[in-house]
Write a structure and sequence with these properties.
Length: 193
């Protein structure tokens, strides 16, 4: 259904109807979340919010912590995109109560705190997300950039050098290291990257 959101919506609705008919409550919550994602992708935000909240209520009844974390994060991301930061923050903090090592939530909360002008809180969350990242590099890279942008250039370079050991050919990491080194007057280092 890639690119055809109407077909995706129809398929998820059929799956939701089947799950309800068969009494498969966990599957029902999954399909509600999927439908909400489609609604959000089509800028039907209020419909998406209602579906996310219905999925959350069901997942809470089922004590589906993994599902709750995922749906909370989706809803928080939608609220954040609407500049409803206080509501998004509250949802993300709820996720961390039952899933304190949820890297994507920590990362999103760090970005939210950056936007809200809370640099120390932002760095705390971004550092935690970076430390938890075992696959991929996005959280570690963003943490390095945040360190620089929030006034910690030496730590940023250390973070990015550490990341470079994992992805030695990453152009964005090399470029950031070159720029930050040049800013610190380390011309030879900058040219070496």
């Amino acid at each position: 259904y890639l690119g055809d959101l109407d077909a995706a919506r129809a398929a998820y609705q059929r799956s939701l109807d089947s799950a309800r008919r068969l009494g498969l409550r966990k599957e029902e919550a999954i399909q509600l979340n999927n439908l909400a994602n489609v609604e959000a992708a089509q800028d039907r935000d209020e419909e998406a919010i209602a579906l996310y909240r219905t999925a959350l209520a069901l997942r809470e009844q089922l004590d589906d912590r993994s599902g709750m974390a995922s749906t909370h994060a989706n809803l928080a991301d939608l609220l954040r995109s609407q500049n409803r930061d206080a509501q998004a923050r509250e949802l993300m903090l709820q996720v961390l109560k039952f899933a304190p090592d949820n890297g994507p939530t920590l990362h999103a909360l760090g970005l939210l705190e950056t936007r809200s002008g809370q640099p120390e809180a932002a760095l705390k969350y971004l550092q935690q997300a970076a430390a938890l990242e075992t696959a991929g590099t996005r959280h570690r890279f963003v943490y390095g950039i945040a360190l620089h942008d929030l006034g910690h250039p030496d730590e940023a370079i250390e973070q990015l050098q550490s990341l470079l050991r994992s992805v030695p050919q990453s152009e964005e990491v090399l470029l950031a290291l070159a720029n930050y080194s040049a800013e610190l007057g380390q011309r030879d280092k900058a040219l070496g990257y």
